[in-house]
Amino acid sequence: MRTTVGIIGGGPAGLLLARLLHTAGIDCVVLENRTRDYVEQRQRAGILEQGTVDALRACGAGARMDAEGLVHDGIELRFDRQSHRVDFPAATGGRSVMVYAQTEVVKDLIALQLAEGPPLFFQARALAVEKPESDRPVVRFSHGGREQTLECDYVIGCDGFHGIARAAIPAAVRRTYERSYPYSWLGILADVPPSCDELIYARGAGGFALHSMRSPTVSRFYLQVPNGTDPADWPDERIWDELDRRFAVDGGRRLARGPVTAKSVTPMRSHVTEPMRYGRLFLAGDAAHIVPPTGAKGLNLAVSDVRVLARAFEHHRRTGSAELLDGYSDVCLRRVWQATRFSYDMTTMLHSRPDDDAFDERVHLARLHRLAASGPATAELAENYTGLPLEEIG
Ligand code: APR
Ligand code: PHB
């Protein structure tokens, strides 16, 4: 098989890139290891920055998002038994976010791609990227029980954190920067209307908790738990009691409870691989970087990577200049490090470390009180949360 751009991975990064290239008239093929059903059911985050919303609309993938997504103009912070609202449009000159689950974005992009092309193969597992430094890189993959090759002008590794593309950058060139955090998130889905209109991020007694939502009838919650926690140790009653304890504010109400339909534990990690390009191999999304989910940046970073990349391919096709392709890694990494910093700040501000003492606790609370009291500190959070504009990264 032969194509211009070979894309490994059919998550949000690979699918949106394929859509953007297709609309620019550039031919590509997507190889996805898993089944369609698996990819469409995988539970992930659900906050879309303004720029992500705009990009999905512009490529024709925004209709269901606009019908079913919930526009949110702020979040609530809870700490010290108090509540503080961050008003996004007021602090950012009009920006907001959309609550629309990543699984739904993926379903919309898959439906479009299967209807209009370019080719998308499920259960097609990339085994290796060969000759990335040549002008004819090759992806070896297995599909339908046999090994095949995809010859490309360019290969894009959109194959997530556990993919194979990153390893094709020689170890002598590749640098990784990592941080693991001494806590995980226990995530649950519950068939109960949200007990709030906007997301609540709490630094409560016993640690962090987040109240999010999927729809007017489905709520999503997260609780900070120790690394290595078994979800089986958290029966439903224990989860609800702990959520109530962490969200407690003076004069507040208990959460509405309902049937818990899913439970899972996710470790928290930051990871950045540099450079994001080697020869004719480019990395995008989780293949190149992971952030802890506290800032809701993972999906949005994947989307901004592929927007930058699609624009570079389109420029190359129109002008013959490789300038934007050459600048891809530097441009993306500036944004990646801003999101890495923001996610790190949000995470450390809102979680308790097992070795924190009373002094640490007071300092974290002082940061939160400052945030609530200062316009510039609130604006800094709001600008980063709603997404820094694609062009304006320092
Ligand atoms: N061959 C083909 N496909 C592969 C291979 C492989 N060897 N390895 C992994 N994949 C596929 C995975 O099955 C997955 O569908 O690559 C896809 C990567 O998708 P994601 O992990 O969703 O990563 P990305 O598209 O970069 O999206 C980033 O996902 O993890 C979240 O928080 C993250 O929201 C962010 C988003
Ligand atoms: C989610 O809805 O899953 C979600 C929302 C905000 C976050 C992380 C996850 O920061």
Protein traits:
single chain, 394 residues, alpha+beta, FAD/NAD(P)-binding domain, D-Amino Acid Oxidase, Chain A, domain 2, 2 domains, 8-stranded mixed β-sheet, 6-stranded mixed β-sheet, 11 helices, globular, binds adenosine-5-diphosphoribose, binds P-hydroxybenzoic acid
- Multimerization state: single chain
Low confidence ranges: none
Number of helices: 11
Q: Which small compounds were modeled alongside the protein?
A: adenosine-5-diphosphoribose, P-hydroxybenzoic acid
Which CATH C-level class of the largest domain is it? Alpha Beta
Strand order of the largest sheet: 6-5-14-15-16-13-17-20
- Helix-and-strand structural type: alpha+beta
What integer value in Å does the Rg equal? Answer: 21 Å
- Could you please say which CATH topology of the largest domain applies here? FAD/NAD(P)-binding domain
Q: Classify the helix fraction into a percent range.
A: 25-40%
Strand content: 25-35%
